Amino acid sequence: MPRTRTSAIPSSPPSTKSPSPPHKSVRDLFPTPALHDEHIRMSYEIARGEQGVLTFEPYKSILLPHWRFRTVPVAEESSKTLKGAFDHYVQEGDLVGSDMARKFIQMGMTRAKRYANHAGGKKYAKSSLQLEREAAALTGDPVKNPNHSHIKRTELPKSTGHAGQEEKLAASEIFKVLWKECMKDEGYLRLKEQWQKEKKEWMKAGGKVKKEEGIWKGYEAEGGRGRNRKKAIKEEAKDKSGQEEHIKKEVVDD
């Protein structure tokens, strides 16, 4: 009986693909430092709207990389991730984390709407900080906190028909739906009430937040003199430059 010859099957070359990075859990992505550090928890301010969203650490650095609104698909993914962070923080009992996530979702809504209403995203001729600096230069007084500014800003006229307008409007609506969910979330509202009571008792017991800390970091320090003032201005400029670069990348259409 004749033998059947079998040909050797060549072995596959080793894969040159690099291994996929390990999947990070929600706990790894969104830690809860305020639960373990009273200083972080008590220096926080809920404030108005989105105030403090780009200054309060370490939550700014935790959440900012997930904030995107350039296109509708990008906004959908970003808003879903940030809402997941919000839900996680509520479940963990971290008011600071949940409120910061809420602020980022709200900023996705308002910032995208601004770029829909104004080509290039410039809503005002000058920012509150610019106006306060100009006023301080005239009077010789320290620069006031721009978040408490009483100087009226001049709003630029809205533009229509500019590139990306419809996309930014749609992106804004995506964030708006989830922002509304955050604002009426029972767990979040309960945490907010508990935190407000805790902070009130803490302040009654003599707790204080320094001017250079909390969500106003960098502004009041400008009123100082000498090395401290220069250092505060330098740090603020560096931080603001990084924030503007991040936002600039967001609004450049693919």
UniProtKB/TrEMBL annotation:
Listed transmembrane segments: none
Region (Disordered): 1-28, 140-165, 221-254
Feature: compositional bias, Basic and acidic residues: 233-254
One Pfam family cited in the UniProt record for this chain: DUF4385
Extent of Low complexity compositional bias: 1-18
Protein name: DUF4385 multi-domain protein
Organism: Cercospora beticola
Lineage, top ranks: Eukaryota, Fungi, Dikarya, Ascomycota, Pezizomycotina
